[in-house]
Amino acid sequence: MEAPEVGLDLNAILLYELEFLIMDIIKSTRHQKIIGDCGELIICNWLSRSGWEVAIVDHTGTDIVAYNPSTDDRLGITVKSRTRTPGKEESSVNIFSYQKGQDDREKTIAACKAFAANPSLTLYVDASNQADIFKTSLENYDISYRRNGKAIDDWKMGPKHQEKYMADPMVKHIKIKFEATTWPW
């Protein structure tokens, strides 16, 4: 898009500026692996800087084991990380599948039992200019957000759902803003 000519209305100028604020997302062939690792490391960082002892574990159903020495809480955290391209920011994030004989929920519960940890869900969802992190217990998800009988449990990302999460003291949220100052090639 070319720069707006002098004398054009404010909408044309804002549209021009908005195009530069939204960074194009072109996913690499290994992006799903990379965003998964990134999400786990970001969650570990926030937990660690909040006093938790954390370890990434390569275990079916659990990605992170975290221990809070001041409260004696131990969490088995399943991390779901996604990148949303422009126009897809409100797409739900799949958490557990029950399709084709799978029971991802049971795998998470079993892993948490093995680590003597409370099951927890954490989502890292990034888009062009920001990322959101949501963390809640599996119990809170089940009570407040899960719709029984579905083939896939998911986390809704639309505005009305995000308002509900913000009002829920059991859902922790972090918003990270991105500003690409000289990144575009």
Structural commentary:
The protein has a six-stranded mixed beta sheet with strand order 1-2-3-5-6-8, sandwiched between helices. The longest helix is centred in the N-terminal third of the chain and has 18 residues, at 31-48. Mean pLDDT is 87; it is low at 15-20. The protein has a single domain, classed as 3-Layer(aba) Sandwich (Trna Endonuclease, Chain: A, domain 1), CATH 3.40.1350. The protein is built from five helices and eight strands; from the N terminus they run ααββββαββαβαβ. It has helices spanning 10-21, 31-48, 104-114, 138-144, 159-167, and strands at 53-59, 62-68, 73-83, 93-97, 118-126, 130-137, 152-155, 172-177. The protein is globular. The chain is of the alpha+beta class and 185 residues long. Helices cover 31% and strands 31% of the residues. Strand 5 (118-126) and strand 6 (130-137) form a beta hairpin.
